[in-house]
Amino acid sequence: MNQKQQIILDLNEIFTDIIDEGEIMLNPETTANDIDGWDSLNHIQILAAIEKKYTFKFTLTEIQNLKNIDDLTNIIVQKTSA
Amino acid sequence: MLFTTFTFFIFLPIVLGLYWLFRKNLVLQNLIILISSYVFYCWWNYWFGVLLLFSSSFCFLITRLIGKTNHEKKRYYLLLFGLAVHIGILCYFKYFVFFVQSILTLLSFSHINIAFNPPNIVLPLAISFFTFHLIGYMVDVYQKKYSYSDKYFEFITHVAFFPQLVAGPIERASHLLPQFLKERTVSAPLFRDGLRQMLWGFFKKIVVADTIALPVNYIFLNYENLDAVTIATGALLFSIQIYCDFSGYSDIAIGCAKLMGFELFKNFNYPFFAQSATEFWRRWHISFTTWMNDYIFTPLAFSKRDWGVWGLMFATLISFILSGLWHGANWTFVLWGLLYGIAFAYEINTKKIRKRWAKTYHPDYYAAFSRLATFSFWVFTSMLFRSESLTHFWGLLNGLADFSNLKIPDIEPTIFLWPLLLITVEWYQRNKEYGLAIQDLPYYIRWTAYAAIIVAIFSSDNLNNQSQFIYFQF
C-alpha cells in the first residue's frame, strides 16, 4: 500500500467519525457533492481533525483551492514529507 | 426597469431580436448586452449607471494590478485598497445614516445628545448585489483561484448583464465571464425551457406574491387593532410572499439568461421543504449563501478551528449577523441574523441527538415534524423582515401573545388558493429544476398549464402595477 492509499484510509475514518452518516468510502475523485453531510460546518471539523492527526497546519489558500480528495491527499503528502 | 411591466415586455423582444440577428458577431452581441443592460438599469436613475460603471471599472483596474505583481505585500495592500473602496461605497449609500443614528442613540443613553439631520442619500438599486459580485472576484484573483481579466469590455458587460444585475443570482466572474468570451448557442428545447422558467417566475411574482401582498400590507400596518390569529396569518402569508417574490425574480432572471444562451446559478431549491435551518440556507438564496460561506464563514471558522465547536458557532453567528446587515440597515435585520445564528448553533450542538430522534421515531413523521418546525421558524423570523423597526416587531409579538378576542381572519378565502396551489405543485416537482419544469408531460397537459398561467397573469390586476420586488431594497 502506498502513502496516498494509506492517507485515504485514514481520511475514511475521520470522515466517517465526523459526518456520522454511516461508513464512508472515499476515492481520489470524491468531492463534497458526492457525500451527504459533507457541508461547510463538517468541512472545518474534518480539516481540524486532519491537522491534529498529522500535526501540521493548513493555510487558508490551500483549503480554498481544494477540489477533491486527491487535492487533499496531495497536500497531506507534501506537508508530511516536508 | 421592472420585469413585470409592459416596458420590459417590449424591451426584451427587441434586445433578443437584435442579439440573435448578430449571432455571428460575438463583439456586437456583447455590445448589445452592454447597452441594453445599462438602459435597463438607468431606467430607474442614470446616476446608478455611473456608479455601476465606476465600480466595475475600478475593480477591473485593481485586479489587473493585483494579478500583474508577484510582490506579496503589494498584492495584499492593493486588495485592502480595493476592498476599502467597494465596502466604503456600499457603507456610504446603505449604512451611513444607520451607523450615525445608532451611535447617537448609544450616546444619548449617556445623556450626550447631538442633533443630526440625516442627509437624503438615495440607495442605488442592486448595489449590494454587484458589490458582492466584484468583491468575490477581487478576492479570487488575490487568492489566485481565478486569473485576472484583461478584457475590459467583456468584464464590465458581464457585471452589468441585466437579467442578474438587480437582484441576483449573485454570480461569480469565474462562472459568468467565460460565457462572454465564447460564442453562445441556444437549442430550441433550451429556448423553450427559458420561456417556461420565466413564465413560472411571472406567475410566482404577479399572481401569488402580489396578490397576497394586499392582506399582508393591511395586517402589518394595522396590527395594533388585530387579533393573534390574524397577525399569525399575516406572518404566514408574508413568508410565502417573500419566497414567491424573490424566487420568482430569480426564475425570470435565469430563464431570461437562457434565452440568450447563458447559464446563471440556481438560486432556490424548494426551501420550504428543508428539514433544518442549515438545510434551509442550502436551499434559499443559494448564490448569496455560498458567497457568505466562501468569503466570510470559511475564513472565519478556519481561523478559529482550534476552538472546536465554539469556533464554528462564533463564525456562524458573525456570518449571519453580517447576512442580516447585508439585507438592510436596520436592527431588525441584525436580530434576524442573530436568530438564525442561534438556530445554527443549536443544530451544531444537537446533531447527534437529532439523529437519535430520527431513528427513534418513524422517519416520515420525524421528517414532517422537522419540516414544520423549520418552516415555522422561517415564518416567525420573516416578521423581522417585514417589520419597519424593533418596536414594530415587538408590537407584533405582543399581538401574537394576546389570546383574547380571537377570530377567523377577515381575509378573502380565495387568497389562500394560490399559495396552496403553488406549494402543492412545488412538492410534486421538488426534484426538478423549477416548479414548472414539465417538459416531459404530454403536450395537452403542458399547454393547458401554460394557458392557465398566462390567463392568470393577464387577468391579474398586479401586472404592470409597478410593484417593486422586495429584494430590490437590499
Automatic annotation (TrEMBL), chain A:
Query: Per the database record, which ranges form the Carrier domain?
Result: 2-80
- Which Pfam families would you find in this protein's record? PP-binding
Q: Which domain of life is it from?
A: Bacteria
SUPFAM superfamilies xref list:
ACP-like (SSF47336)
Q: What's the protein here called?
A: Acyl carrier protein
Instruction: Name its species.
Output: Pedobacter puniceum
Automatic annotation (TrEMBL), chain B:
Where would you find this protein in the cell? Cell membrane
Return the GO cellular component terms, semicolon-separated.
Answer: plasma membrane
- Membrane topology designation: Multi-pass membrane protein
Q: Does the keyword Cell membrane apply?
A: yes
**Annotated keywords:** Acyltransferase, Cell membrane, Membrane, Transferase, Transmembrane, Transmembrane helix
Superkingdom:
Bacteria
The UniProt entry, under InterPro entries, shows: Ac/AlaTfrase_AlgI/DltB, AlgI, MB_O-acyltransferase, MBOAT_fam
Query: What does the sequence similarity comment in the record state about its family?
Result: Belongs to the membrane-bound acyltransferase family.
User: What is the protein name for this chain?
Assistant: MBOAT family protein
Q: Which organism is it from?
A: Pedobacter puniceum
